[in-house]
Write a structure and sequence with these properties.
Largest sheet: none
Number of helices: 6
Protein name: Tetraspanin
Membrane topology: Multi-pass membrane protein
Order of helices and strands: HHHHHH
Subcellular location: Membrane
Structural class: mainly alpha
Family: Belongs to the tetraspanin (TM4SF) family.
Radius of gyration: 27 Å
Organism: Seriola lalandi dorsalis
């Protein structure tokens, strides 16, 4: 009787582990979709701003998240197959896939954290130079569009304030046609509206565009970190369940 009871108990534990792994796979798919969505959102929603950054760390973090999210979708399917078939080889493959994705997300998280720490300093050092030296210059159309969108989206003018534009290559050239600031600084854009530098006409924001862009990027990095940590915790649970089921199947003489 004790042997029969022990076998029934082991079968019950195996079934429980299988259901737990099924539930985990569903949550894993949801988490993978979230990771993929955050990565795409980061690159698509405000991709113009990436050309204003001195380093590519922010973009690399987003690309890594997209890669991890895509792998999660495939791995979730593999996990379901492994649970249904109850084969140790499938479970081993599934476990190492989870571990690989976990390491990828860990790298993305470290990059996001490191970049978050130096974000403010980078913007202070490079944003003003990028805006004043490259705006409306030949071959710098992407930066020009990014600056125009930045000033309109965040209702700001200049990296620190509107006076930054006085020393810019664009304002000093004939192309500016006596503008004091680009037209994208205007609250209501009309041709040559940048000729009048007055608070009623252009944006006068304390801290300029640096403060606005820094806050925007910091919020994105926090979202990347939060989603990455959440899915990483799910993966740790999945690896534990997979190991338990692997041992249980290994102990089964059949």
């Amino acid at each position: 009787m004790s042997a029969v009871y022990k076998d029934e108990q082991e079968d019950w534990l195996t079934v429980c582990l299988k259901y737990l792994l099924f539930v985990f796979n569903f949550l894993f798919w949801v988490g993978g979709a979230a990771v993929l969505g955050v990565g795409i959102w980061t690159l698509v929603e405000k991709s113009d701003y990436l050309s204003l950054l001195a380093s590519s760390t922010f973009a690399v973090s987003a690309y890594i998240l997209i890669l991890a999210g895509g792998l999660v979708v495939v791995t979730g399917f593999l996990g379901c197959c492994a649970v249904i078939r109850e084969q140790r080889s499938c479970l081993s493959t599934y476990f190492f896939c989870l571990l690989f994705i976990f390491l990828i997300e860990l790298v993305a998280g470290v990059l996001a954290y490191v970049y978050y720490q130096r974000l403010s300093e980078e913007l202070k050092q490079h944003l003003n130079q990028t805006m004043t030296e490259n705006y409306a210059q030949p071959g710098k159309e992407d930066i020009t569009l990014a600056v125009d969108r930045l000033q309109q989206d965040f209702k700001c003018c200049g990296s620190n304030n509107s006076h930054d534009w006085i020393v810019s290559v664009y304002i000093s050239s004939k192309q500016a046609e006596e503008r004091i600031v680009p037209d994208s600084c205007c609250k209501t854009i009309t041709p040559h509206c940048g000729k009048r530098d007055h608070p009623s006409n252009i944006y006068k924001v304390e801290g300029g565009c640096i403060t606005k862009l820094e806050q925007f990027l910091a919020d994105h990095l926090l979202v990347i970190g939060a989603v990455g940590i959440g899915v990483a915790c799910l993966q740790i649970c999945g690896m534990v369940f997979t190991c338990c089921l692997y041992r249980r199947i290994k102990m089964d003489p059949y």
